[in-house]
Amino acid sequence: MKKLLNILKIVLYNTFIFILCFYLLELIIYNCHSDKKTFVLPYQIKNPYIHFIYFDNYFTDKNNITEGRKPAGLEYNTLPIVIFGCSYAYGQYLNPNQIFSYKLSKMLKRPVYNRAIPAGWFSHMYYQAASDEFYKQVPDSDTVFYVFIDEHYRRMVKSSINITDKYLFLNYSYKNGKLKPDNYDNMLLNFMKNSYTIRLIVYNCVNHLVKSESFADYMTEKALIYFIETRKELENHWKHKVKFNVILYDSMYYTKLMSRKLKENGFNVIDTKELTTEKLNDKKYMMHNTWHPSEAAWDLLTPLIIEKSEL
């Protein structure tokens, strides 16, 4: 009995030391990666906040940083175009008349619904296409664009953009031929996804692995599934074929492999490096204080994209 008590004491003591060390490590990592002075554990292990899955009164153009964009060109009585993507497609930090969707609408004389989400990626595209609410807000369309940047690969295997973010990405797993959302009722998994320490380890690994060609087939195949399943949802709802254009924006990982896989599956690939010899990361085309495309980038690219997509 005494031996058992001693073992129990050792276990409790080591558990306490582990929890204390872990908490101190969390505090150190937080201080290194956050500009906020107050340390608050972000562990919403029950009912965690999922990044952008509620779109009621969202596409209002209330600001150019986080609020969704209003559709452009509603004065035109033609079939609309739909755009998906992240802050690049959204036009973060730009005025409504400076962004890709607005310029596309004016040049083609067609309505354009910009459904891009800041800090979004493939999952937000699929989530919308699989939602009945999307079709109440976006009318029947025959043309879709997705603005693809290399950061979207990382977001497939990360739980948030930054280590100290308090939200979780909406992630899916592909099982039995269907995309299924991750289990956000599992409190242990939610804890692991929120931990600064675990995020730091995972994010550093991801940043290393995403640059490796040995990782290329896995990442491109995972991305391809989102495009195929999104197109399937759109065509099932709209009851006709959709011309799906994927814009590979500037320098990207696995460009040739991703492009080949998309083309083999009937997607129209538009590689900006093939459209222009201009360097899209120059000051003229990139707002270097925010690292997002400037209006000049879309002035340059929009007519070239239209030509390449044969609209």
Quick gist of this model?
This protein is an alpha/beta fold and 311 residues long. The chain is 44% helix and 11% strand. The relative contact order is 0.13.
Topology summary:
Layout: H1 2-33, E1 81-84, H2 87-90, H3 100-108, E2 112-114, H4 122-129, H5 132-137, E3 143-148, H6 151-155, E4 172-175, E5 178-181, H7 187-194, H8 196-209, H9 216-238, E6 243-248, H10 255-264, E7 268-271, H11 272-275, E8 286-287, E9 292-293, H12 295-309
Q: Largest sheet, described in full?
A: 5 strands, parallel
Radius of gyration computed on alpha carbons? 22 Å
Instruction: Please trace the helix and strand order, writing H or E for each element.
Output: HEHHEHHEHEEHHHEHEHEEH
Secondary structure tally, helices: 12
Q: Which strand-content bin applies to the residues?
A: 5-15%
Distance N to C terminus: 82 Å
Number of strands: 9
Q: Which shape, going by the Cα principal axes?
A: elongated
Low-confidence stretches: none
Strand order of the largest sheet: 2-1-3-6-7
